[in-house]
Amino acid sequence: MQxxxxxxxxxxVQWAFGGLIAYIAWGxxxxxxVLLHLPTSxxxxxxxxxxxxxxxxxxxxxxxxxxxxxxxxxVVAILGIARSAWPTGTxxxxxxxxxxxxxxxxxxxxxxxxxxxxxxxxxxxxxxPVFIDFHADWCSNCxxxxxxxxxxxxxNAALQQAVLLKVYDTSPLFDTYAAxxxxxxxxxxxxxxxxxDTKSNILYRxxxxxxxxxxxxxxxx
Length: 221
What we know:
This protein is of the alpha/beta class. It has helices spanning about 10-35, 40-55, 60-65, 65-85, 115-125, 140-150, 155-160, 170-180, 210-220; strands at about 105, 110-115, 130-135, 165-170, 190-195, 200-205.
């Protein structure tokens, strides 16, 4: 068996694998930026600018030209200031508001119960299903779903048809669910979601925070 000869086609292979690696790396970076509350668009513009400067300057001068480095730092700083001051349109809160209490938490136009008994009492009175979101502040996918509850109009409308219960990983209620043995997903990682009827019978369960269409299917009468 003869190995293929090297040539210009290998550069295309290198670019293809390099692009794939960059795409995967960007996905992890974007999730970490969510936790740090940093705009991903700013980082993207900064990376593009660095690549442009590196391509524009002659090979060795990219490392020896201090003016170019100072210019790069200045432009990145300007981009940061402009990005923070630039209007982003209608804002939709993804963090709990000041109106949150010990038993309830408001996120945008949705009210989440923090007490299980209160949530199921409200479900029994209204006949609505209960949507349970097992949440952690360190979980980037949890935060992405929380943002989607306001940004995704279909998901938001479906959640309004349910009684909402948020269970933080730091609460005793989370430990109760995890120790029950009925939800091994909680011992693997977060997020995790449950939809039950008014008597706690499970209608739907998933760890996929992007499965919003399936969630809506079980929440919509």
